[in-house]
């Protein structure tokens, strides 16, 4: 430990701590832009300048380590002036369109400018004029708004191990771009959206599909249904000032009804269907022979990753479509038939914590109903904006229930929203189906928690099943390398592309941190604990679907509608 003084307060800090961390630990706020607590600090933006007595010049506190006897001042005239100048220089070549910017009120640069008390920009800078990259369904990149903090580069490389972005060119012409300056649709991008989650400005944002959804809602000839993903209900409240991890399922349903959706359904219904199909697929591969380990296929960023990086291992993926896509098919077939609605008149919207789901919905093969199965995918952030635009007082809404039957789901379905949840849901059903015995304990603690990779051995009847769970693509890569080297002895693996699983998805409210993800994950397990039914195969609406329409899991109809193949 070393003794230091920050703004007159004496404090002991472990060696190696940065001045920024030390200051934050005693409640001294130093503004930052390039710094992100989850990634290696770079000290490039210079907003976090402080005075260290005896140092030659002001220092970047995010990379400056504490040392014995150090005296730090964070609030001198020099410090405030220097910070203000740095921010003004950034603003001097930043577009002046805050009022109409997608990140208005959620922009870190805007907030720092306000906190620094900037009223006038003293410098007149040259503006940039790069074309906007929006040739893909998920993300929009506007380099004119980029402040070169490099957080997207670090998220893509350190967290995901995908390395799409790099700094290109020099000086004023420096940009962040994929190799050869191609658009994201031509880069090895998985569209996980983690870059958008860490971007402090609107240089990378989700593609906004709200206009199309408003048009559908106001078109009297259309029957507009919405499905909501498990992870949205534990995060949406954050965009309305509620604490992270607040469960807002009932208010969310009420809000969606207020803004005009005809039916409010739950992706959880088809998460239960996914378990029926994927669980049966696993049992078949295990008992009759098939490619093992079988790996889950519901996270579309993960699917993009396998198609791009491991096309030789595509057979390991479960052929079961994701709950979002199964839902899309069933709405325009089963639901349309059951309620005598012409599928042509149905507009199917999904609300997801994910940007890659926008790409998944647009895949060529996702038209098994005869139409595009899912018409529009909105992220949690977009639906929050729609609720605000409609003037709905979210915080004061009374809880309402999902509509039946596609709104009926189980605790097994809701845990899909966090890492380990799909595996746990599958194990609950696979165990009971294979042994015919009721499980004493439904909780598989070995696959829970936010550790990057988890493994467990589960005894099911005569079989010892080795399972693994990974989240983030960097961890997924380790799993895939082992499979490629034939060094993997797992039977079943769950992979989710985003940190923490969908709760940490690229479309979730900003900002995110390990603590926020922990609170959302805890809320997910709370939802499971309080659910009346906690196993997919006990969902009465799913039982009815199979009894009256689908037949059996892996049957003829399932094969055509609910399964797919991925391709390089
Ligand atoms: Fe997920 Fe899903 S759990 S991917 O993380 O499987 O996005 O929440 O909706 O489809 O159910 C996201 C979340 C989903 C799907 C489900 C799966």
From TrEMBL:
Residues 1-78 form the 2Fe-2S ferredoxin-type domain. SUPFAM superfamilies: 2Fe-2S ferredoxin-like (SSF54292), 4Fe-4S ferredoxins (SSF54862), Fe-only hydrogenase (SSF53920). It holds the Pfam family Fer4_7. Residues 78-117 form the 4Fe-4S His(Cys)3-ligated-type domain. Its EC number is 1.12.1.3. PANTHER family: NITRATE, FORMATE, IRON DEHYDROGENASE. This is NADP-reducing hydrogenase subunit HndD. The gene is hndD_4.
